[in-house]
Amino acid sequence: MNLPHYNLEESRALHRLPEQVSAFGYNNLDAAARIKGFEMYSSEGVRTKMGPLKSSYYRISVSVRGTTEIQLGLEDFTHGNGTVSFTFPGQIFSKRGLSDDAFGYYLLFEPDFLEDILPPDRIPVEFPFFAFSGVPFMQLLPAELDTVIDLTARINTELQQQQPGNDKAVRLYLNLLLLALKRSYERQGFHLTPKENKAAYLVPRYQKLVSEHFLTKRKVADYAAILGVTPNHLNRAVRKHTGQTASEAITGMLVREAKASLRYTDSTIANISDQLHFSDPAGFNRFFKENTGMTPLAFRKQAVPR
To answer: Which residue intervals define the domain HTH araC/xylS-type in the entry (predicted)?
Structure first.
């Protein structure tokens, strides 16, 4: 089987228990009062384990207290007090080990939810923690966490009171929350200097395109044409700002997807080869061994899901 891929409506039952006691966010909000393309809830009533899966929406997870283990792609992270994590559409996500005292907030939104404020393709540029090349975890200072909690409370008020124009207010508050998180992100050095602004638009756009189209577009020239630059220019920019070539970014995504399928699904090697658009299993085996040092079968045997 393939890794499951969910949209916002489909995923609610995956992360929420049927019985809801909290009045926060969407926990007990009438269906008619929900704003399309958005969801917010607290960790009260959340499932302790979820995934691995992929989703079509952006996710912001804010820990106020307690801990949980999060896996993004093939990387493991621990959420603690004041930790924020970010996931973008198509990313492999799982969580486990939610502590008994854990409490936090989750905000989910579709790529076009903020289109009146920001075009969907600008989201990973304006908020680089949502970019493939971004840092998906960061620790907030107490004052920064207070700001995030205050903005989530304001969003909750709009959801619960259901005043005219509350959908616009929620979008504005969400944008303010993202800006507050961006300030913390930049304060911690997770940003590029002003002289790098031009490449800052090119490289994240390239990496986002790769994360979306790596199965069908394997040549740097394909992406250069979309971005309106030459392959050499694109390659120089990617190498300068990531330390790898543009083609290595494509290879990296293929390897990551292959590892996830081998680790989390029971699909045969031949089926995975076909899903990744290799001409035959032998070609997939050669590619995987060249880039990991082991065969797909050997990787599957030692990569037992935890």
So the answer is: 204-302
The b-or-e profile of 84-105 (16+ CB within 10 A means b, else e) is bbbbbbebbbbbeebeeebebb
Check which CATH number belongs to the domain holding 130 and give it. 2.60.120.280
What is the model's pLDDT at position 242? 79
Sheet holding 75-79, edge to edge: 5-6, 50-55, 93-96, 68-72, 75-79
Look at the chain and report how many structural domains it folds into.
2
> Mean pLDDT, 10 residues at a time, over the chain (306 residues)?
75 77 85 93 86 88 92 77 91 84 94 94 90 83 96 96 95 98 90 48 77 88 89 90 88 88 87 92 95 94 66
Q: Which of 211, 265, 262 is nearest to 90 (CA)?
A: 211
Query: Which amino acid, one-letter code, is at 141?
Result: L
Q: Give kind and range of the element (H or E) at residue 184.
A: helix 166-187
Please tell me whether residues 36 and 13 are part of one structural domain: yes
Please spell the DSSP secondary structure of 190-215, one letter per residue. -S--GGGHHHHHHHHHHHHHHHHHTT
Domain boundary among 187, 210, 229: 187
pLDDT at 292: 94
DSSP string covering 218-285: --HHHHHHHHTS-HHHHHHHHHHHHSS-HHHHHHHHHHHHHHHHHHH----HHHHHHHTT-SSHHHHH
Q: Within this chain, do residues 93 and 66 fall inside the same structural domain, yes or no?
A: yes
Do 35 and 181 have their domain in common? yes
Contacts of 167 (CB under 8 A, 6+ apart): 35
What's the CATH number where 252 sits? 1.10.10.60
The answer to whether residues 244 and 226 belong to one domain is: yes
